[in-house]
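EI: anyone free to look at a 341-residue chain?
SC: sure, send it
EI:
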Amino acid sequence: MTSASAPLALTMGDPAGIGGEIALMAWQRDRADLPPFFMLDDPKRLTRLAARIGVEAPIAAINRPEDAAAAFPTALPVLALSLPARSEPGRPAARDAILVVEAIDRAVGFVREGRAAAIVTNPVHKTALYDAGFPDPGHTEYLARLAGIETAPVMMLAILGLRVVPVTIHISLAKAITTLNTDRILHAARVTAAALKADFGIARPRLAVAGLNPHAGEEGHMGREEIDIIAPAVAALARDGIEVSGPLAPDTMFHKRARANYDAAICMYHDQALIPLKTLDFDRGVNITLGLPFVRTSPDHGTAFDIAGTGTASPESLIAALIMADTMAKNRAKAAGALVG
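SC: here you go
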């Protein structure tokens, strides 16, 4: 069982990307306000990287997660991986893919043993992982397999004042429309409602379900998906006792007054969810995986090879992901304690 008082485990991500430098910058700038965390990485690589970008962040090589909290106030704790990293900023080395996977595997092991409170994953380069034989489409599917869960996890993106969950994700818009069905909506919404209770401390979550078509279909005149697919899901959620509204017109559900009426928006496709969130706060988005037996967050951006090693990347999304992971882990522990009690 995970201990909420344990440190957070931060994976290296692709060592040719910006994960290392945003971790260094986050520690240097905000360590007094951040929950203690340790990196699964190459300590010597991070020392070189700190010197390269001019960040004063001493590295403390640790042998176990339990040593992170004591080291954190004066140095960034780093638990070394089995091999040194060979990648240079912006120039991935194929061999390092095994280290990227090792960092994820060990982080999952630590959190499942209660030695880490949650996992925060730095961005990975999927092509490099595929070339190394990585068997899953991405982080989320791999984590689900490691966790041994059969039901699909759900992706949430969050900023202050808005949480969005896309029902269909990384597929074409044409395929999103043809694969959308009532069961998919119900799964995403039910997992979201449970997570809002356990991980966000919301006793009675309110969900807003978006329509697919302009004006939510205009009573079938602009498409029947709202009538035939989405409305039945909304009705089933209401029967579950979930406070839910919809199908709502997507163009009017994300302004400030509308957002005050729900805790999460269930969206029908990727851009319907991400465009409003990234427009409102591009730098502080957090990617959260719901439905896992442990808490996992990630910065809502990629490896940014083009600026890696320049010290110009923003650590804001990583900082938000660390704070959110800590809050979620504490809420989950509190909810579990209440259930046991």
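EI: The radius of gyration is 20 Å.
SC: 👍
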